[in-house]
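Homework-ish question, so no full write-ups if that breaks the rules, but can someone show me the predicted structure for this set?
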Amino acid sequence: MDTLTRTRRRLEALIEESHLEIWREHNRALLRRLESKHSSVEFIGDALSTEMVLNIGPQHPATHGVLRVVARLDGEIIRSCVIDIGYLHRGIEKVAEYKTFQEFMPYTDRMDYLSPYSNNVALCLAVEKLAQIEVPERAQYIRTIACELARLLAHLLWLGSMVMDAGAVSMFLWTFREREKIYDIFDLIAGARLTVSHCRIGGVASDLTPEAIEAIRAFIRNFPRELRAWEKLLNKNRIWLERNEGIGVVSAERALELGLTGPNLRASGVPYDVRTFEPYLVYDRVEFEVPVRTEGDNLARYYVRMEEMRQSVRIIEQCLQQLPPGPIRNENAKLSYPDKQEVYYSMEGLIHDFMYTHWGVCPPKGAEVYAAIEAPKGELGFYIQSDGTGFPWRLKIRSPSFCNIQALESILEGAMVSDVVVLIGGLDPVMGEADK
Amino acid sequence: MAFESLQPKLLLLAAALLALFTMAAYTVYFERRISAWIQNRIGPNRVGPFGLLQPLADVLKLLFKEDIAPAAADRLLHRLAPMISVTAAVATIGVLPFAHNLILADVNIGILYILAITSLNVYGITLSGWASNSKYALLGGLRSSAQLISYEIAMGLAVLSVVVQSESLMTSQIVEAQAEIWNVLRNPLGFLIFLITAFAETNRLPFDLPEAEQELVAGYHTEYSSMKFGMFYVAEYMNVVLSSAVITTLFFGGYLVPFGHLFMSDLPAWARTGLEVLSFFGKTGFFVFVFIWVRWTIPRFKYNQLMRLGWVYLFPLAVLNLVLVALARMLF
Amino acid sequence: MQVVLFGICALLAIVGAVGVITARNPVYSALFLVLNFFSLAGLYLSLEAQFLAVTQVIVYAGAIVVLFLFVIMLLNLRPEDLPRFRLDRTGPLVVLLSLGLLLGVGMGIWSLLGASFPQDPQAQAVGTVESLGRALFGRYLVGFEVVAVLLLVAMIGSVMLAKRRFQ
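A: Not a homework solution, just the prediction itself:
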């Protein structure tokens, strides 16, 4: 029996063997891709080298939502693997074309649902750049504070789930306690905990109340102590270090090729951070460092994110100190929602509110813009083309998780089954954003 | 043998089994309470006072669940595997001395018997992994067989060092030999090795690779439900209790009461026995706590780390320890 | 009591041994082997050789068969891959050889039937670790050491084989 026949037969057997009744064609195509991935598939006559195709996800405890990995295993080692995404696809880029810019905001909450505020801000910045809307200073500071809180929120979940995937379950609950506090803060800022939608084009929906400011102060006073305690548990833990050191290595060149951004890119030694590279909001007025490591392995990603959390606290502290008084939204009623007080008690206000809701901001015809922010997962960009109406003609989202997941296939190959969970955790994709 | 002479033994057997099952059930309860305490939660506190009846509710729930076996499973082995697990766990109590002269079978190879029984534990796990006809379960079973074999050797050598010290394979004499000083002080390295391998043999974190829920869903018992799952669950906690009991017996003076020689001789016999039983279960309880404490703190090993620890570090250390103990024995 | 124990163990040992060669599924074969080892351990126990019995369980049932199982499970055989029993040209030869073996063993047993065994008053002590150790490191020291060297050589050989496979 020659190699080709054997390969074909094996493939048939694999397809038969997979009890995947649903989407048979889709699964066949996946398996075929898995088989043909490396042109030289070798079957040695040795019975011990029998391989096994393992389907990890989309329902699996460690795949962060509905990521699916189809892996070909040799014992515990992954020989090749194929990533299957799209299980959470909702077509929100298309939905955007039927919504005014402001109406579209709640959809962005549900992209990276671990840091909804960053998504709101990214959309607003893009629209404001498109329609050239000025944003008052105070609103910019509020956005910055909320964005950094969102970063903490996302990184805390990353830390908890990654350490839990490695087996230390308690950590998950410790980070969730801190996340709970941030959610409470968002409740005070926006009136909603998870899906905040607090940004408005041209500003923010409501000002920070004194209680909210006090809650943020209390949180950032206490948080570094928690962070230190966690580092004390993990940074010298041999099991933890050895499980992360040297696995999932991505070189700087490879990372750039793959389009990695955010902490994953900085862990590979490229100091690219939109906050310093092309400062938006008030990031040019606060002092902070961009942590970079050169190892490119999972441990480097861990250190980078831990340090980023500390820097976020620094940024929030400075923002609170510098927080200027003033309006929180653009006063031009054609560009931004009027104040609720005005809507309820004046005729013009009501008309403006109605018009804004109905037509929204109308950027000039043919204008197009790309605006990006440094979301917790990496560069989150909105590319918008306008046809002069209040609806985007085309809205494309450059979501960091979608690009970061590309690295997964290459770093999983050659890794062990136990590494899958920490590698997925280390790359920290969130499927709401990758599938959009 | 006449039935009359067996009667006290049977009574003791019943009492020991009862104690074991109760301890296993309450280890589950305490595991949940302690983990809750570690994780800033409350834990089960609804069923009975302080939730003390929770184990009963758990068992009832498991009994009433539907018993599901995968269509492609090997029915016989799928059913047999949990039974092997529980049997192997229960069988160890035969040679554990609960107090002076309070032992089911004081055979002259007691400690080897424990090793033999623990080495059978692997069958339950491996067979369940294979019989389920599920890839995750199979991976769990494979991991478990490799893990248990690797750590059994270091464990055996650690036990052997204790045997050399006490010059007996009988568990009761191993305990009596510690009357002056506990083995943990005379043989600390052996204790450490035994403790680590005991974690590995019970499949508890950081060695719970066969059932690593984040990697293998639930590992070897992925395809189990109802009381068949319950049996694995019970077996795991029984193993925790029994490992703690063996650690106590081998290294912490078993039933010997600390500083007992100062006051024990004045007490009546029943009080002495009672104190000894208390002392035995107290020490065992402490190690059960250690098992739980470690589980909720440390991340899990990776397969290759596990093998490296077992073969590259523990095995040579255990040999070295054995040689050292033997030398010390010869010289002093 | 002794006879009953012997009967049960011997019967189980035979069932296990037959099962090993007749079971179609290799996993079942391995399990029958375990049954056989256990019954042998039982026989040892009835001969007051506790140490031997426990060692039998630890070494064979606890380690060696587990390794067998490990390999068999890795093979992941499907039912259609399993060999079927077929009589071909080697068949008659196999039958002939088996019959010859059976005859030899039968004759051996026959010759022993008439013999009488002296009841050793110290039989109780033979099975203990002490007596076994004394025998191994005293009277049979040379044989013991030779076996040790043999095992070492076998171990080195297997390491070499495994190494070559992974290179």
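Now go work out the reasoning yourself. Hint: Chain A touches chain B through 31 residues (CB under 8 Å).
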